[in-house]
Amino acid sequence: MFKAAELWGPRFTIELDQHFLRVATYSYKQTRAKLRQNRSQEIAPLSVNVYPASLIRKAYFETVKSVIKDQLIPPRKLVLEILEKTELPQFEDIAYDSALQIFKNRLVEYVQQTKIKFAIDDFGVAYASISRLAGLRPSHIKIDREILHSRPSGMIIRFLHELVGANDLDPPDIIVEGVDEKTPISLHRLRQIGVNYIQGYIVGEPSSDIYRLSQEKAEELKKLILGH
């Protein structure tokens, strides 16, 4: 569906982003109701992917404000993950650096007016770059799984970890994506580098439910982290 929308152009990707933002926040509220999660500290953040081009459009901005106004999710619990595998919005007769600044200014508007957070998805591939990271101040950065299968993966992850933590009292969390039993770098090594968060089949398969790890799974992961 996303590939088809990309072929058809921005009008369709924006519609898709709006649709899935509504679906994700509504489903999240329904699940929280079943679990009777009402206190702020009980509510885990919800991350929703979004194309960079959608973020500069008024229609998407209004949709974000709408889901917050309808109390589908507390604003500080909503994280929009910017897809780094697609290029930034293009503006006629505007240089790349200026376009990047326009994009950053737009994100500032979101934060100021809605209090939501942003994250960077798939960092390390395609259009992702240090220049795009600078100044965005994301709440977390997801390192693309492709990096795990490159030879100097540990070096790259360490570099990014040190980069985002330099001279920052509130650095973003680094999340390594696509970790499974066949990943060349171990959980023990990732922990040595300083990674505190992972995402992948080694933890569990995707689920429509909010769940906690079983005691057995928690013990298994603990042993892998400790290198036993």
Task: Give structural notes.
By secondary structure, the protein is α/β, with parallel strands linked by helices. It is 46% helix and 12% strand. The chain has 9 helices and 6 strands. It has helices at residues 2-8, 10-35, 52-55, 58-69, 96-114, 130-133, 153-165, 187-193, 215-226, and strands spanning 46-50, 78-83, 117-123, 140-143, 173-176, 197-198. The protein has a 6-stranded parallel β-sheet with strand order 1-2-3-4-5-6. Helix 7 links the parallel strand 4 and strand 5. The longest helix has 26 residues, at 10-35. The protein is globular and about 50 Å long. The protein starts with a helix and ends with a helix. The model has no long low-confidence stretch (mean pLDDT 81).
Task: Determine the fraction of residues in helical runs and give it as a percent range.
Answer: 40-55%
Helix-strand topology string: HHEHHEHEHEHEHEH
Q: Please list the strands of the largest sheet in the order they lie side by side.
A: 1-2-3-4-5-6
User: Could you tell me how far the N terminus lies from the C terminus, measured between alpha carbons in angstroms?
Assistant: 43 Å
Query: What does the overall shape look like?
Result: globular
* Rg measurement, Å: 18 Å
Largest β-sheet summary: 6 strands, parallel
By DSSP (H or I, 4+ residues per run), the number of helices equals 9
Q: Low-confidence parts, pLDDT < 50 over ≥5 residues?
A: none
Mean pLDDT: 81
Characterize the quaternary organization of these chains.
Answer: single chain
The SS-based structural class is alpha/beta
Measured by DSSP, the beta-strand proportion falls in 5-15%
Number of strands: 6
